[in-house]
């Protein structure tokens, strides 16, 4: 029974995201954090395999760089994890270093990519904590695998999967309960976890995309309940017009909220307009002392989890696919009332 469910869930996700036939869908475990290292192991192995295929006399040094585009705290964490495993990580962009804080994405001409030698280019499509979302797919040399963390915006808009080598997403935002992590990978990037070659670590079986693909994600006991719930969400999306329909709703939800912030004197967005996330809307209240009162009042009205991530403070409204338009409207109404109540401060 579970095999049928496993296949059905994959089929539904393939339909929703229009995933081409030459891509495999894997259901893995260990959340986004585990992918931070799985990516390094697997894609370095691809590069090393290519190297093994070259004639000995043509072999030079191999130590391909891994390019990271750091636009917020999750891509920063992924890059840190890569550095623990490998000694040639190139931070092609670090927005915090460049600008003092996250909240913008400088144009690609300003990135310091390593070029065709890179084993991959990594980025996070939506930075959950900082509310920064790419408004287009980076334009990378197609011979280099583009790796993307879509944990917090997968299934929120249409995306051209064929532009990517690997996409991964922890389920717990737009897919289902925590416990399953979706990996979408181009088939030519599935390499056998060979024993140590040239000092490279072999891939632990549980982290190997090839092992997972060969076992249709049933290499060990799968998180069945999480996959079952995820499939219910896929069906819900399909019944309601698919990704195209939810994308429209997401756009209305986030524009209404950003308009409310724009038209206000006390709410401020820390993010540049062109890269504001449609999923996570962070904002500050001026004066700052009002934030506590704002959160308390919201909680009394049943609006929970509006506190910004502890690393950045402030307020953050996460408005994933499951949040209906009415929920956003209720928040906006509260924000406007709160501002009116405090208008004497202006
Ligand atoms: N990447 C992003 C974009 C995230 O939002 C998160 C979790 N909030 C992670 C990675 C880490 O995921 P996990 O907690 O599943 O390890």
Could you please describe the fold and organization of this structure?
The chain is an alpha/beta fold and 346 residues long. Helices cover 37% and strands 15% of the residues. The protein has a 7-stranded mixed beta sheet, sandwiched between helices. It has a 3-stranded antiparallel beta sheet with strand order 10-11-12. Helix 1 packs across helix 6 (224-239), helix 2 (31-52) crosses helix 3 (73-85) and helix 7 (242-262) packs parallel to helix 9. It is globular. The termini are far apart. The relative contact order is 0.15. The mean pLDDT is 94. It binds 4'-deoxy-4'-aminopyridoxal-5'-phosphate. Residues 31-33, 74, 124, 128, 149, 151-152, 170 line the site of 4'-deoxy-4'-aminopyridoxal-5'-phosphate. This is 15575_t:CDS:1. It comes from Acaulospora colombiana.
Helix and strand arrangement:
Blueprint lengths: L1 H16 L5 E6 L2 H22 L13 E5 L2 H13 L3 E6 H5 L20 E5 L1 E2 L4 E2 L12 E4 L16 E5 L10 E6 L22 H6 L9 H16 L2 H21 L4 E2 L11 E6 L4 H11 L14 E4 L6 H17 L5
Parallel strand pairs: 2-3, 2-4, 4-7, 7-8
Antiparallel strand pairs: 1-9, 5-6, 8-9, 10-11, 11-12
Helix pairs in contact: 1-6, 2-3, 7-9
Bound molecules: 4'-deoxy-4'-aminopyridoxal-5'-phosphate (PMP).
Organism: Acaulospora colombiana
Protein name: 15575_t:CDS:1
């Amino acid at each position: 029974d579970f095999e049928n469910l496993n296949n059905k869930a994959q089929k539904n996700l393939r339909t929703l995201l229009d995933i081409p036939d030459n891509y495999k869908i894997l259901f893995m475990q260990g959340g986004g954090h585990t992918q931070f290292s799985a990516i390094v192991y697997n894609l370095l192995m691809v590069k090393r395999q290519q190297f093994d295929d070259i004639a000995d006399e043509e072999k030079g040094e191999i130590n391909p760089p891994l390019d990271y585009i750091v636009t917020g705290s999750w891509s920063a964490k992924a890059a840190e994890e890569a550095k623990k495993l490998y000694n040639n990580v190139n931070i092609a962009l670090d927005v915090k270093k460049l600008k003092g804080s996250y909240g913008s994405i400088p144009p690609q001409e300003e990135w310091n990519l390593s070029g065709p030698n890179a084993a991959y280019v990594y980025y996070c499509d939506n930075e959950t904590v900082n509310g920064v979302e790419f408004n287009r797919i980076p334009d990378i040399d197609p011979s280099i695998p583009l790796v993307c963390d879509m944990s917090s915006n997968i299934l929120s808009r249409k995306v051209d999967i064929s532009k990517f080598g690997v996409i991964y997403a922890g389920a717990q935002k737009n897919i289902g309960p925590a416990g399953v992590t979706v990996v979408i990978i181009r088939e030519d990037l599935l390499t056998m976890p060979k024993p140590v070659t040239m000092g490279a670590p072999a891939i632990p079986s549980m982290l190997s995309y090839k092992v997972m693909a060969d076992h249709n994600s049933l290499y060990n006991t799968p998180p069945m309940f999480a996959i079952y719930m995820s499939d219910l969400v896929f069906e819900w999306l399909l019944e309601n017009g698919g990704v195209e329909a939810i994308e429209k709703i997401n756009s209305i939800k986030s524009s209404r909220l950003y308009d409310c912030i724009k038209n206000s004197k006390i709410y401020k967005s820390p993010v540049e307009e062109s890269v504001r996330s449609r999923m996570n809307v962070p904002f500050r209240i001026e004066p700052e002392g009002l934030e506590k009162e704002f959160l308390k009042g919201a909680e009394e009205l049943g609006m929970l989890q509006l506190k910004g991530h502890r690393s950045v403070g402030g307020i953050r409204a996460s408005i994933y696919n499951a949040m209906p338009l009415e929920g956003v409207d209720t928040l906006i109404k509260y924000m406007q009332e709160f501002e009116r109540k405090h208008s004497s401060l202006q």
